[in-house]
Amino acid sequence: MFEHVYKQNDELAKVIKHYSKKDGIYQTAIPSLFFINESHITEPLHVVYKPSFCVIVQGEKEVLLAQERFKYGPADYLVSSVDLPVTGQVIKASSHACSIFSSQT
C-alpha cells in the first residue's frame, strides 16, 4: 500500500515542479490553492496558519506549536481548523529534492 502512495506522491511532485520551477509561493488558477517550493533549509519563521489543509510532497518541515514539535515529510499532511500561531522551518531540502508543499485555505 505504501508503495502506491509514494508513487502517487512522486507524480504530484512532478506536476507541482512544472508550475513552480524556482523557490517561492505559487498561486494556482484555483483561488485558495497554492504551492510552496523551497530548495534549501530555511530559518525558523513565526507565522499564523489560517484554517487550511497542507500536504508535504517532498522534503521535511518541522512545526513548533507551544512546546510541541511536529515533523512532517513526504505524504504527510497538516490540517488546521483554527488560526494557529506556530514556528515553522524547512529542515530537509535540496536542489534535487525541493521541499514542496501544497496548501488549500
From TrEMBL:
Pfam families: AraC_N. It comes from the Bacteria. Residues 29-96 form the Transcription regulator HTH AraC N-terminal domain. InterPro entries: Tscrpt_reg_HTH_AraC_N (IPR009594). This is AraC-type transcriptional regulator N-terminus.
